[in-house]
Amino acid sequence: MSRRFGLLLSAAAVCAPQLTAQQDVTARLVGRVPPAVAVAVRALADSAAARGLPADPLVDKAIEGGAKGVSPERVVAAVRLVLGELDAAAAAIRIGRVAIPDGETIEAGAFAIATGMTGPQISQLVQLSATPYRPAATLRVAGTLTALGVPAQQTVDLVRQTIRNGRAGADLLALPGRVQSQVARGASPAQAAAGLARATAARGAPPGGPKGNKGQGNPRRP
Amino acid sequence: MTTGYHPLVKRLLDGELALAELPPELQAEGAEALGLLAAMDRRLVTLPPTLDARVMAAVRARAASPSRRMLRWITEPRELHLRVRPWLLGAGLAAAALVVLLGGPVGLSHRRGTLPNVAAASESVFVRFVLYAPGAKQVGLAGTFNQWDQSATPLVRAGNDAVWTVTLALPAGQHQYAFVVDGRRWVTDPAAPAVDDGFGRRNSVIAVGGAAGRVL
């Protein structure tokens, strides 16, 4: 009797977080999407959670589709696409030698993929992100640069140049704003990025390597 | 009653012309205007000498007591101007860190990780959104930060009728959004990068940094 009770308790302990997550997803979707879409999204969210992927982006996309009055089929298709991007990002990040990527990094990787970056480019960016540069921040910066119109490979090159020669993590975060200001003055995104890369190279690496944001790197494989 | 007199009648009222100098067709109008002017009582009003004292006595009688003034100060809505000073922010963060190190107050429960809500709050950044939308009757801001609810964050007209704006605190992280014009037209922010939304449109993107308050 006590063994059976113990098994039941163990099963409850294993299932409780999953049930809570399911309830969370269901609660967020109520009234925002048709019931059939909610069922499909819940299944996709379960699948994501089982693979260690964040489920929130899927729910967000479904809610966005509902708010924009998109057809149920198209909402589910878009949610599937987001799941695919999360999956691809997680795989690329693991190849980039982050053993257990957190949800924030995976979301940042998926964003970079959505802007047009490839899996190998994501892996390169993660490999570049040694402390003090956080992989999530690097991927967000790269995705934002690509969304601004900087070609993907040029984005990777600019980020690499900045990380190698940058004096602080803030230099990396400032890149999209600098590109935007150059574009506002009439340069194309590619020209703006090339100009920044030249300026960064000319400045050279600071003595003692980059500084700032220490201790925020992700766990890595030994 | 006539509201717009002929210019010549106005000159008559100003004393520049006599009634007889008006053309015949305007003389009736001129006579009416003069009649109305004459009907006005132009005598000076003489105020009684006790009026000042009576008015001030009434004002004092209606003046709120200190406790009522305090209650009004607490309950009445008023405009607040927040100015973040870097040295005060630093001191606040240090105090927050001290609170966390000492175990944290009971009310600061948090769901995940080791960072408390204090840190999350300090990583919010105020962002101002602006849209030039001539002819729009209403503009809303919908995004991942408000569950894509187009009525949750309305923009207000700023001076010029065509410029709409809103300022809101966004938590650190990346957010996608769009403006909704007149409840039906989804418009990307021309001042921000944009990505495909998966539905055939585009979303604007904003990434808000942490303590530095940097907006990517």
What does this protein look like?
The complex is a heterodimer of chains A (222) and B (216). In chain A, α2 runs parallel beside α4. Chain A is an all-alpha fold. Chain A is built from 11 helices and no strands. The C terminus of chain A is likely disordered. In chain A, 72% of the residues lie in helices and 0% in strands. Chain A folds into 2 domains: 76 residues, no CATH class; 86 residues. The longest helix of chain A is centred in the first third of the chain and has 28 residues. With 216 residues, chain B is of the alpha+beta class. In chain B, the strands form 2 sheets. In chain B, strands 2, 5, 6, 7 and 8 form a 5-stranded antiparallel beta sheet that branches. In chain B, strands 1-4-3 form a 3-stranded antiparallel beta sheet, with no helix packed on it. Chain B is flat, with a radius of gyration of 32 Å. The termini of chain B are far apart. The C terminus of chain B is likely disordered.
Keywords:
heterodimer; A: 222 residues; mainly alpha; 2 domains; 11 helices; disordered C terminus; B: 216 residues; alpha+beta; three-stranded antiparallel β-sheet; 6 helices; 31% helix; 23% strand
Write the layout of secondary structure elements.
The complex is a heterodimer of chains A (222) and B (216).
Chain A: H1 2-29, H2 35-50, H3 56-67, H4 72-95, H5 103-114, H6 119-128, H7 135-148, H8 152-165, H9 169-173, H10 175-184, H11 189-203
Helix pairs in contact in A: 1-2, 2-3, 2-4, 3-4, 4-5, 4-6, 5-7, 6-7, 6-8, 7-8, 7-10, 8-11, 10-11
Chain B: H1 7-13, H2 24-39, H3 51-62, H4 66-75, H5 86-101, H6 117-122, E1 125-132, E2 139-143, E3 156-158, E4 160-170, E5 173-181, E6 185-187, E7 194-196, E8 202-208
Antiparallel strand pairs in B: 1-4, 2-5, 3-4, 5-6, 5-8, 7-8
Helix pairs in contact in B: 1-2
Summarize the structure.
With 222 residues, chain A is mainly alpha-helical. Chain A has helices spanning 2-29, 35-50, 56-67, 72-95, 103-114, 119-128, 135-148, 152-165, 169-173, 175-184, 189-203.
